[in-house]
Amino acid sequence: TPSLCFADVPPVGPADLPLSLLELGCSGRFELITHPLPHGLPPTTLNLETEVEKQFLRDPAWLPIHDTDFVFQKFLKVAQRKVDVDSLLSCSPSALPSGLSVVRDPTTGMLLDFTEVLLENTGLSAKNSLSLQRQPGPPSESLRGSNTNYPFLPGGMEELSLDEIRKKSELEEEIDFEKDLLKVPPGFKFGMDFTSKAKPEVNLLSLLSEVEDSSDLQREEEEKDEEQKKEKASNVLRTNSLEDLGIKPTESPEEKKKWAIPVDITFPCDDFYKRIPNPAFKWPFELDVFQKQAILRLEAHDSVFVAAHTSAGKTVVAEYAIALSQKHMTRTIYTSPIKALSNQKFRDFKTTFKDVGLLTGDVQLSPESACLIMTTEILRSMLYNGSEVIRDLEWVIFDEVHYINDAERGVVWEEVLIMLPDHVSIILLSATVPNALEFSEWIGRIKKKHIYVISTMKRPVPLEHHLYTGNSTKTQKEMFLLVDAAGNFLTKGYGFIVLCSWSLHPPRRFFFIPGWFSTCLCPPPLYLYLYQDRSVWLALLHFLSQRQQTPVVAFTFSRARCDDNARSLESMDLTTSVEKAEIHSFFQKSLSRLRGGDRQLPQILLMRDLLKRGVAVHHSGILPILKEVIEMLFSRGLVKVLFATETFAMGVNMPARTVVFDSIRKHDGTGFRNLLPGEYIQMAGRAGRRGLDATGTVIILCKAGVHEMADLHAMMMGKPTILQSQFRLTYTMILNLLRVEALRVTDMMKRSFSETSAKDSRITFKRISQLRQTLSSLPPLDPEGQLSDLLPYYHTVAELRVTNESLQKAIVESVNGLKALSVGRVLVVNNKQHLNALGVILQVSNDAVNRTFTALIICEKGNEEGKGEPDAASPHLYNTALFIPEGPCSHTVQKLKLQDISAITVKTLKVIPDRIIDNYNKRQQPRFRHEPPGQAISTATQELLRLAEANPGGLATLDPVNDLQLKSVDVVEGSMRLRMLQDSLKSFTCIHSPTFFARVKERMSVQEELDRLLFLVSDQSLTLLPEYHQRIKVLQSLQYIDGGGAVQLKGRVACQISSHELLLTELLFENVMSPLAPEESAALLSCLVFTQKTQVEPHLTSTLKESIERVLSVARRIGELQRECGIPQTAEEFVGQFKFGLTEVVYCWARGMPFAEIALLTDIQEGTVVRCIQRLDEVLKEVRQAARIVGDSVLGSKMERASLAIRRDIVFTASLYTH
Predict the structure, then answer these.
(1) What's the half-sphere exposure (Cβ side, CA atoms, 13 Å) at 224?
(2) The pairing of beta strand 20-24 with beta strand 3-4
(3) Per-residue model confidence (pLDDT) at position 41
(4) For 13, which of 50, 179, 636, 694 is 20 to 30 Å away at the CA?
(5) Would you say 702 and 505 are in contact if contact means Cβ atoms under 8 Å apart?
(6) What is the pLDDT of residue 887?
(7) Distance, CA of 19 to CA of 36 (rounded, Å)
(8) Helix, strand, or coil (residue 511)
(9) Is residue 1035 within 8 Å of residue 1041, measured between CB atoms?
(10) What is the 3-state secondary structure (H, E, C) of 1165-1206?
C-alpha cells in the first residue's frame, strides 16, 4: 500500500512550493507530486504509541474503568506473558529423506521387523514438478489449484528430467545400431550374426527331412557333401527363431494397432450378469445392449465413447461410472457445456447418489463430494492450476460432446482432453455423429489408450415427419406424412401436398379478414402475415390437443416471434381446473424467494397468465428463474405448448410428444440458411417420450407455401454434422503452458484434433526409419570430376518441372489458353513414350478438373504401342531438338494429360478429327491392323514430319504473357523464371555423362520423401505455428513474457483471466479503474460480457465517459499491435467486440435501483440482462484475484464491494434445481 515518508523539515513558508513525496508500493521508487491529489494524500502509517493507547487504554471494552479487579487480572496476563522470539521465525520443515518399511513373514503375513528405506523425489512440489508423487499443496488450494502450480503431467506426454535428456542424447550419439553391435555375450563361444541375409522360404517337410534324416533323396545329397549337411543340420537344431528358418512372422500387433475399437451391439449380451454378479448400481428396468456393453467396459476401467440417439439412455453410463467411483472411493467429474444442464444434472444425481457437488462460475456446493458437476471451463482451469482433486479422479464424463463443434468454446474440450492425466479414464456421451471412430482414434492416439466406441442403431421411439399446410377448412385437420417411422422418404406424399397447397393458394391469392377484403397479386402486408400466422397456430394446436398429441415444443428461430406466437393464443386454454391449481401453487411457491417488487415484473405477470392456460415461452431473454419454473412444469406435463428457440434442444433434457417447426430457415449470425441435418435431428429428437409414446411426431409448418423437396430431403435424411476441430490459440493457453518449462505450446498444437487427424505418427516414424535404411544402402554420389554439379542440376530440373507444370495449369484454366489448345494446334509432347515429338490436337475433353487432349503424334515405326521405357533423364528440359524418326515415320493417337504437353507451338494444321480417330480405332482391330492409314491421317503425319524436319532445333512456342495475354503476377514471374532456368541448364557439365541422371534419381526421390516426412513430424508443419509466433511477438511487445519466453508479472495476471485477457490486464496495469467508484468499475467492465446490439443510448457520468474512452484507446492500441505482428484481425474488429450498451443498466443496478426500473432503461430483454450481470460477477472475481497478484489491495477491495453491490435480488436468486 502506498505510504508517505516524512523527514524532519521546517514548517511550510510562503516561498515553498506545494510538493509532496510519495513512495510507490514496496519498490523503493519515489514520485514527486506537484499538484494536489483529487482525494488528498493517501493515509499514512499511524504512530505505534497512539495505536496502542487507542486500542488498550481508551477502549472501555478492553479496559473497563469501574471493574478494577477484572482490569488488574487482564493487565497481569499481558504484563507477565513470556516472550517467545522463536515464534516470530517460521521455517517449513524439510522433507524426511527416509521412511519405515514393514518386513512381514511371506507365509503367515506376521510383522517381523521395520527397516529404514531411503525415499526418492522428496523435493517435489506443485511449484517444480508435474509428477503425481509430489507433495500435496495447502488445503486452501486443493479445489481450484493455484496459478503458480504446475499441472499434473498430461496423459500421453513423456516427462523427462534434464539428466535423462542428457543421458539419452549421449546414448544416441554413441550407439550405431548398424555397425557397432556386440555379437557375443560374456561367457559364450558363439554369438549372433546380425548381417541381413536373403533367407530361402522353407517348407516344413524339407525341414523335418533335414532334422530327422527321413528322406532317401536327402540322404544321397548328404553322402555327396557330408560336412555341409552336418553344419546345416546343427544350425537348424540350435535355432531359437522362426525368422532364421525363413518362416516369416506375421505383422506385429503394434503395426495393426487401432486406438478406437468399435463395439458390436447387434448381438444380445447374455452373460452380462455372470460377468458382473455384483454391479455397482442397479436400475428398475432391463438395460439395452449398448448400455450393458458400455458398463462391461467401465468395469474393465476402459474409456468409452457412447454416440446414441436422443432419449436412448446415455445417462445410464454416467450413473454407473459415478456409482463405480463411489464403490472404489475415488472421484468423478461430470462436465456439461451449459450451466442450466449442470444445474439439472445436479438435481438428478443428488436424488440418486446424495454425495454430489456443483461448481459453476457463481455457485459452489459441496466441493468435497465424490461426484462433482461443473462446466468444462472450470475443469480446464483446475487442470492448468494443478488442483488436488485430479489425484483422486477416476472418471471424467463429457456430456453433449458434439458441442466441440461450437466455434467459440469448442477449443475448451480439446484442451481438457489433451491435459487430462494418464490415470483418468474418459467417458464421452454424444448424439449420433458420423465420425465417432475418427474422433475416438484421435483421443486414443494422444492418450495412448484404447477407446471403445458404442453407437446405437436406431431411436428407441421412432419419429414420423409431417407437413402441415394451413388454415383452410380442407386441410385444417390433416397432416401429410413425409417420412414414416421406418425412415422412408415418401415422394408420393410430397406430390400430394403440393397439389393440395396449389388448390389452397392459387397464383391469384385472396386474403379474407372480417371487415377487410382485397384481391391482390402483390405480397400481403406484415399484419396480414401475423394474422395468418395466428390462425395457422390456432388451427394446428386445436387439432393436436383433440388428438391428445400434447405436450408440444414449437421451435421458432427468433425470440420476438416466440413471444408474439405465445401472446397471439390468448383465446386458447389447454389446462383443466386441477392443472390450473397445481400450476398456480407451484408458481407461487417457486417465486416466494423473490422480493415483492420483483414478483410484479411484467414478464413474470405475463408468463403467469400464459402458464395457467398451458402455454409457455423458453429462450435466452426469459429470466433464469422463470425458465426453470417452465422446465419443471413442462417435465410434469403441465405445459402443453412451449414456444422455444434452439437452445432448448441443446441445453435441456425434456422430451415432448410432438415437435413443431415454425420454419426451417434460421439466421446463423452471418445470414439466413436452411437447418443443417444435425440441427434438425437434435431438435426433432425431442419428440417421442420413451415408455409413453409409440412414435414421436414432428411437424413442419408450410405457411408461405410448401418447401422444396430437395431441401426437405437433405435436412431429414442427411447425415448429422461431423465432429470438427475448433482448436485455436488463445493467450491464456499460451501463457499457462509457457509458465511450465516441461510443457510446450507446440506439444498442445500437435495433439489437437485438427493436426493429429491428418497423420498417424507411429506409421510415419516407421516409414522414416525404413527410408533411412534405404538411403544408407544406396551407393554414395561421386562429388568429383564430371558429376561434381549433379546435385545442383537435379534441384534445377526439379524446380523447372514444377514451374512448367504451374504455367501449363494457368494456361489451361484461362480463356485464351483454352482457345489456343483447340483442334488443329501443334504441340510438343513428352511422356514415357515420346521425347520432343510433334503432335496435333484432335479433341479436347469437357472435364474441367482432369482435362485431356486427344492428339495424333508422330513416332518411329514399331513404337506405336509405346513399349519405350520412361526416360528418367528428362533430356527435353535442356534439349529442345525435335524428334525426327530415323527409319520410316509412323503415328499414334493418344489421350494426353496436361503434364505430357511440354510446349504449345505457334503452328496449327487443318485436320479432320473424326475421320482420323475413326480410322485409327478401326486399324486397332486385329483384322484391319495391316490396312494402310487413311488419307486424313497420312496428310496430318506428313505435315508434322515436314514441320519437324524444317525446324530441327525446335519450333517457336506461344508465350503465355505476350501471346496469350496472361498478365497475372504468378504467370509473369513463372514465365521469367522458366526462361532463366532453361538457360542455366546448358552450363552444367554432368549432362555430358551418359548415366548421370539415373544415379541421382533414386537417391533423391528417397531423400525427398524422407524430408517430407521429417517435415510432417516436426513442429514446422503445424498449421497454427505462424499464428503462434505472431501471438508470442504480441506478448513480448506488451512485456507479458521476456525474450526467453519466461512469463513476467503481467503474464501471471493474464493467466487468471478467462476471456479478453489482454485488455483486462492492460486496464489493470494502466490504473484505468483507480479513479472510479465500485459501481462505476462494474459498469465499465460490463463491456467484456455484453455482446448484443442495442438501439438505446446510455446516459453516463462524465467519469464513466472518460473511462470508456480510455478503454477504447487501450483496445485500439492492442488491436493495432496485433495487426503489426501479423494477426489478421483488424484493429476496428478488435475494438468492435466491446459493447457498452449495458453500462447505464449495470451502474443503476449496482447503485440499488429495483429491477423493474432498470428493465425500462434498455431494449434488451430481462433474461439477457440477468445473464450479463451474472457473468460480470465472474469477471469481477477474476479482477480481484489479479489485483491480489499485483499487490493492489485497494482495487481488490473495490472489486469486492462492486461484486457485493450487484449480487442481490432477482439477478442472484439461487437456482430451483439446487435447492
Answers:
(1) 6
(2) antiparallel
(3) 63
(4) 50
(5) no
(6) 79
(7) 9
(8) strand
(9) yes
(10) CHHHHHHHHHHHHHHHHHHHHHHHHHCCHHHHHHHHHHHHHH
User: CB-side exposure of 1133: number of CA atoms within 13 Å?
Assistant: 6
Q: Measured between alpha carbons, how far is residue 507 from residues 208, 213, 639 in Å? A: 92, 99, 39
Q: What 3-state DSSP class applies to 288?
A: coil
C-beta neighbour count of 256 within 10 angstroms:
8
The β-bridge relationship of strands 672-674 and 393-398 is unpaired
Predicted pLDDT of residue 1062: 92
377 contacts 419 by C-beta, under 8 angstroms: no
**Distance (Å, rounded) from C-alpha 139 to C-alpha 120?**
24
Strand order across the beta sheet in which 837-844 lies: 889-896, 853-860, 837-844, 825-829, 901-908
Distance CA 647, CA 626 (A): 15
All cell numbers assigned to 406: 461450437
What ranges make up the beta strands (E) of 974-1077?
A: none
Check residue 35 and give its pLDDT: 63
3-class DSSP state for residue 1109?
A: helix
Strand runs labelled E in 689-754: 696-701
- CA–CA separation, 601 and 595 (whole Å): 11
The whole-angstrom separation of Cα 390 and Cα 130 is 12
Residues 6+ apart with CB under 8 A from 448: 155, 156, 259, 422
CA-to-CA separations, 542 to 472, 477, 537, 593, 1140, in angstroms, rounded: 14, 9, 8, 36, 45
Q: What's the rounded Cα separation, in Å, for the pair 718 and 716?
A: 6
Half-sphere exposure in the Cβ direction for 953 (13 Å, CA): 1
- State phi, psi for 903 to the nearest 5 degrees: -160, 145
Low-confidence ranges of the chain (pLDDT < 50): 1-7, 26, 165, 168-174, 199, 207, 210-215, 217-222, 224, 228-256, 506-530, 870-873
Cα(475)–Cα(234) distance, integer angstroms: 94
Strand order in the sheet with 20-24: 3-4, 20-24, 29-33
335: left (phi over 0), alpha (psi -120 to 50) or beta: beta
* DSSP state letters, 435-501: THHHHHHHHHHHHTS-EEEEE-SS-SS-EEEEEE--SSTTTTT--EEEE-TT--B-HHHHHHHHHHH
Cα–Cα distances in Å, from 354 out to 349, 351, 708? Answer: 7, 6, 52
As a residue count, the chain comes to 1219
- At 17 the pLDDT is 56
CA pair distance 22, 200, nearest whole angstrom: 92
**551 vs 548: CA distance, rounded Å:** 8
Instruction: Please tell me the distance from the alpha carbon of residue 1093 to that of residue 1084, in angstroms, as a whole number.
Output: 17
Whether the CB-CB separation of 133 and 124 falls below 8 Å is answered with: yes
Query: Which residues are paired to 23 by β-bridges?
Result: 3, 30
Q: Examine residue 1098 and say whether the peptide bond preceding it is cis (omega within 30 degrees of 0).
A: no
- Distance, in Å, from the CA atom of 1053 to the CA atom of 1064, rounded to the nearest integer, reads 9
Closest CA to 1088 of 1109, 1059, 1067: 1059
Q: Could you give the angle at which helices 996-1017 and 761-777 cross, rounded to 10 degrees? A: 150
Asked if residues 1059 and 1083 have their Cβ atoms less than 8 Å apart, the reply is no
In three-state secondary structure terms, 428 is strand
* Angstrom distance (rounded) from CA 700 to CA 558: 16
pTM for this structure?
Answer: 0.72
CA distance 144 to 462: 44
pLDDT in tens, 391-449: 999 999 999 888 888 888 889 999 999 999 999 999 999 888 888 888 999 999 889 89
Backbone angles phi, psi at 517, to 5 degrees: -140, 140
* DSSP 3-state of 598: helix
Give the HSE-up count for residue 295: Cα atoms under 13 Å, Cβ half-sphere: 29
Please say whether the beta carbons of 643 and 565 come within 8 A.
yes
